[in-house]
Amino acid sequence: MLENNIDKVLSGRTGVRFFFPLCGKAVDMKWVADMGHSVVGVEISEKGIKQFFEDNNMTYSEEPVPAIPGAKVFKSSERNISLYQCDLYKFSSSIEGQFGAIWDRGSLVAINPRDREKYAALIISLMAKDCRYLLDTLLYNPESYGGPPFLVPDEQVASLFGNSCDLEQLQSLDALDALDALANRQRRWGLDYLTETVHLITPKST
């Protein structure tokens, strides 16, 4: 999804700072870094972070984060990638500043739905004026499956971000037709439909 929409995210910019919330070991992080951009991610699992570096044969350093007690940051020796092992809600712009791009696949849909307003406020606070936030959401029949990943209706995307941001729907597809392992797992959820939607969210110009 990021590759399909990368031109929309970059919008002609180079050296963009990307934020990956709940990044896990997302392969997109290396792809973005290989293009010359910098990557900051947050992930609660130290194992997932270390696995990302090991899977990509990248050496890294590990150091504490004074502003977040108990947190660590893992930094790539070869590329501009910094992954923070901490509670997402303890991360802030005071740690790494604001970002020119955010790729959210598997983050908003993973958190407790009751925390979505808190999550949206954090994301908005991390957006630079020229930020382009790519958000991937899922729609399905909640009577068939209760999540996670949780469904996020388009109306809620608008209510979470619409006051301070402009919203554009870039892509909407039937994910049950996708021939990948994710789709196979989704079929096992017993879903009769699954729609994956990609939104581009940008701060409103003041």
Q: Can you describe what's shown?
A:
The chain has 206 residues and is α/β, with parallel strands linked by helices. The chain is built from seven helices and nine strands. The protein has a nine-stranded mixed β-sheet, sandwiched between helices. Helix 5 links the parallel strand 6 and strand 7. The two termini are 30 Å apart.
Order of helices and strands: HEHEHEEEHEHEHEHE
Q: Summarize the amount of helix as a percent range.
A: 25-40%
**How many E-type strands?**
9
Q: Quick one: biggest sheet? A: 9 strands, mixed
Unreliable stretches covering 5 or more consecutive residues:
none
Distance, first to last CA: 30 Å
Q: Figure out the total of helices.
A: 7
Strand content: 25-35%
On the 0-100 scale, what is the average pLDDT?
93
What class do helices, strands and sheet pairing give? alpha/beta
Give the C-alpha Rg: 17 Å
Global morphology? globular
Write a concise keyword list for the protein shown above.
single chain; 206 residues; alpha/beta; nine-stranded mixed β-sheet; 9 strands; 27% helix; globular
What is the compact description of this entry?
Helix content is 27%, strand content 32%. It has 206 residues and is an alpha/beta fold. The model has no long low-confidence stretch (mean pLDDT 93).
Task: Present the secondary structure layout.
Elements: H1 2-10, E1 17-20, H2 28-34, E2 38-43, H3 46-55, E3 60-64, E4 72-76, E5 81-85, H4 93-96, E6 99-105, H5 116-125, E7 127-140, H6 154-161, E8 165-174, H7 181-188, E9 194-203
Parallel strand pairs: 1-2, 1-6, 2-5, 6-7
Antiparallel strand pairs: 3-4, 4-5, 7-9, 8-9
